[in-house]
Design brief:
Elements: E1 5-9, H1 13-21, E2 26-31, H2 36-45, E3 49-51, H3 57-67, E4 71-74, H4 77-81, H5 84-90, E5 95-96, H6 104-107, H7 109-118, E6 127-130, H8 133-143, E7 147-151, E8 161-163, H9 172-186, E9 196-200, E10 206-213, E11 218-220, E12 224-226, E13 229-231, E14 235-238, E15 243-246, H10 257-278, E16 284-293, E17 297-304, H11 311-315, H12 322-330, E18 346-353, H13 360-363, E19 364-370, H14 372-377, E20 380-384, E21 387-390, E22 393-397, E23 402-407, H15 410-420, E24 424-426, E25 430-431, H16 440-459
Parallel strand pairs: 1-2, 1-4, 2-3, 4-5
Antiparallel strand pairs: 6-9, 7-8, 7-9, 10-11, 10-16, 12-15, 13-14, 15-18, 16-17, 18-23, 18-25, 19-22, 19-24, 20-23, 21-22
Helix pairs in contact: 1-2, 3-5, 8-9
């Protein structure tokens, strides 16, 4: 393809990976700070780097007029929620990223659940939404079963609580603990809106299917799995993601081809339902954060209206022609796209400053030292995330700072990551997990148990049918 001008929006590891994939073009970028990896691509390709508010439609529109790009690519969710995609269309420029009306599928969990029930999309969960926190706490106690409690709007992976074995909450102290967790989640959302969504709790291995669409054609990408918890062995608070895996080929070792097809069908049906609901074709990434459960098999936990991060770092380098695919999508020619895939798996390890995720102010300002040449020689890829180039120093901005990627079978890739860590240091302690990609056998075992259960349900015609075991059931 001929060199085009592309305007990339965002500043994390996902956008660093996107910039590299788009580097056959002249890359222009807008970030709120200078990401060293994006800066390298911009300079290499003869583009220009702009620093400003990526959520400001007016600011982005000014840059669009200045650059006059052939197409745009929006990385994070917040600019989508603020209508930055609309700014491109208003200037007559195609863009990878849905308009604000369609990005509601990620912004509002209530809107998403209502849509799935209205259009009878498989993989849906029962839910209740509450603006009154006391009523939410009462519902949980009356229901008696296990539930997941979430803020009603997207808050970057924060605030999700799972309450299991509810009978343990019958003492006054435990009831107070429950009310406190409801209050904590409520604080993430504006006072005059629905604050809490309560969903029936399901269990099973999680995975993400990203689907790219130009509104007519749909291209499912290879699966990825995200490791959400901050600390080793899946403990600690939930984060934006401390690592991810993808492969081999388009699957994961614990998800089979039939489950991949079912997952794709669910996401495609959802994109079609969004168009019916909003009257606007969905264009961009629609990503199903899924779980294999005994209730449905492939089940929707939530949707992203963009590429996940760190899943993007696991997927993008495995697709040799990813930049071309994005260009075809922007031009409405996605039907011509074919994925040129590296078949071996990838493993991503996120590296964060000391203090992350509980104390972002402590995590901010930490200096990092990196030997990029040695990392490349060892066969790893490094993407820069929440880390700024200030003078000649790499300064953490308070969130995950780096994402390190390796290819090979999961054990081999994990060993490569261990070796590459020797070339990353800091003036303080750094936070990372070494178990990413080393839990495959547990996931395979878990998936086999779940698969037996949901296949049995399917055989008896009760796939997706929930039953309340509690004496206070029937409240949904």
């Amino acid at each position: 393809m001929n060199e085009k001008k592309v305007l990339l929006i965002g500043e994390g590891a996902r956008e660093n990976a996107l910039a590299e994939a788009l580097s056959n073009n002249k890359v222009f970028a807008i970030s709120s700070f200078i990401n060293p990896g994006i800066k390298n691509v911009v300079e290499r390709t003869g583009g220009k780097y702009f620093v400003g508010n990526i959520n400001s439609k007016d600011f982005v529109k000014e840059i669009i007029k200045q650059v006059n790009p052939d197409f745009g690519v929006i990385g994070p969710e917040d600019p989508l929620f603020h209508g930055v995609s609309n700014a491109f269309y208003e200037e007559g420029i195609p863009v990878v990223g849905p308009i604000d009306k369609d990005a509601m599928i990620e912004k509002s969990k209530v809107w998403m659940r209502q849509l799935m029930w209205k259009y009878k999309i498989p993989g849906r969960l029962r839910f209740k939404s509450f603006s009154n926190l006391a009523e939410a706490a009462k519902f949980i106690i009356d229901y008696g079963g296990s539930v997941a409690i979430k803020p009603s709007e997207q808050v970057g992976g924060k605030g999700v609580k799972v309450v299991a074995d509810i009978q343990a909450y019958l003492s006054n102290e435990k009831r107070q603990a429950l009310s406190k967790s409801v209050d904590e989640i409520g604080k993430y959302v504006a006072d005059d809106e629905v604050k809490i969504i309560i969903e029936e709790r399901v269990d099973g291995p999680e995975y993400t299917l990203h689907v790219l669409t130009d509104g007519s054609s749909y291209l499912p990408l290879p699966l990825a799995q995200d490791y959400k918890h901050a600390y080793q062995d899946g403990i600690g608070p939930e984060t934006g993601g401390m690592g991810s895996i993808s492969g081999p080929k388009n699957l994961l070792p614990f998800i089979n081809e039939e489950e991949y097809e079912r997952s794709f069908n669910i996401v495609k049906m959802t994109a079609e339902a969004i168009e019916k609901e909003t009257g606007e074709k969905y264009k961009g990434f629609l990503s199903g954060q899924m779980m294999l459960t005994d209730l449905w098999g492939p089940t929707i936990i939530e949707y992203y209206s963009r590429l996940g991060d760190p899943e993007a770092s696991a997927i993008i380098p495995r697709i040799k022609n990813f930049g071309e695919i994005l260009e075809l999508m922007a031009e409405g020619k996605l039907s011509k796209a074919k994925i040129d895939l590296v078949e071996e798996p990838s493993v991503v390890r996120a590296i964060a400053p000391y203090g992350y995720p509980l104390n972002k102010s402590l995590a901010k300002g930490q200096k990092f030292h990196i030997d990029l040449q040695k990392i490349k020689e060892k066969g790893c890829i490094l993407y820069f995330s929440s880390i700024a180039l200030e003078g000649n120093e790499l300064i953490a901005q308070g969130s995950r700072a780096l994402e390190l990627v390796a290819f090979g079978d999961f054990d081999e890739a994990s060993k490569k990551l261990d070796e590459c860590m020797a070339y990353i240091s800091s003036d303080r302690k750094i936070i990372y997990r070494t178990d990413i990609g080393r839990t495959i056998n547990e996931m395979v075992e878990k998936a086999e148990i779940v698969r037996y259960a949901y296949k049995n349900r399917e055989k008896h015609g009760i796939l997706g049918v929930s039953a309340d075991w509690s004496p206070n059931g029937g409240l949904w």
